[in-house]
């Protein structure tokens, strides 16, 4: 793995970590939006755009939580500016992590169907 790949992974992990802290401390009210967990972040190759993926419990609050996250995009971008040395800070969007949701469903089905 070359230096550029390592930096790309490091920045994505850093964004995911900051998003988790942001939602835990600043943005989310679990009674309104459910429990928001940041599962991962992905960056474009040029570092200009990022997607932060969320998992929400209970699942009935997913749409509310996603709306809250999207409304908080500029606040989160300011949070990243304040708490990191990223320059420039990428444009950030939030998405539900359906891969994580599918993995949890497979685990549930596997547990239920054990002999």
Architecture overview:
It is a single chain. By secondary structure, the chain is α+β, with helices and mostly antiparallel strands. It is 57% helix and 21% strand. The protein is built from 5 helices and 3 strands. The protein has a 3-stranded mixed β-sheet, sandwiched between helices. InterPro entries: KH_dom-like_a/b (IPR015946), RbfA (IPR000238), RbfA_dom_sf (IPR023799).
Q: Which segments are poorly predicted (pLDDT under 50) over 5 or more consecutive residues?
A: none
User: Care to count the β-strands?
Assistant: 3
What value does the average pLDDT take?
Answer: 89
Q: Number of helical segments?
A: 5
**Assembly context of the chains:** single chain
Quick one: overall form? globular
Largest sheet: 3 strands, mixed
Helices and strands, in N-to-C order? HHEEHHEH
Question: What is the total domain count?
Answer: 1
Indicate the CATH class: Alpha Beta
In the CATH hierarchy, the architecture is: 2-Layer Sandwich
| CATH fold title | GMP Synthetase, Chain A, domain 3
CATH evolutionary superfamily: K homology (KH) domain
User: Helical content, roughly?
Assistant: 55-70%
Radius of gyration over alpha carbons?
16 Å
Strand order of the largest sheet: 1-2-3
Strand % is 15-25%
User: Helix/strand/pairing class, anyone?
Assistant: alpha+beta
Distance between the termini: 43 Å
């Amino acid at each position: 793995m070359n230096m550029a790949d390592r930096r790309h992974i490091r920045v994505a992990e850093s964004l995911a970590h900051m998003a988790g802290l942001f939602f835990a401390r600043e943005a989310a009210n679990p009674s309104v939006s459910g429990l928001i967990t940041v599962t991962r972040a992905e960056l474009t190759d040029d570092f200009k755009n990022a997607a932060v993926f969320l998992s929400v419990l209970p699942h009935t609050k997913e749409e509310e939580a996603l709306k809250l996250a999207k409304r908080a995009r500029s606040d989160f971008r300011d949070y990243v500016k304040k708490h990191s040395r990223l320059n420039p800070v990428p444009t950030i969007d939030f998405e539900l992590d359906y891969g994580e949701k599918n993995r949890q469903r497979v685990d549930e089905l596997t547990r239920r169907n054990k002999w």
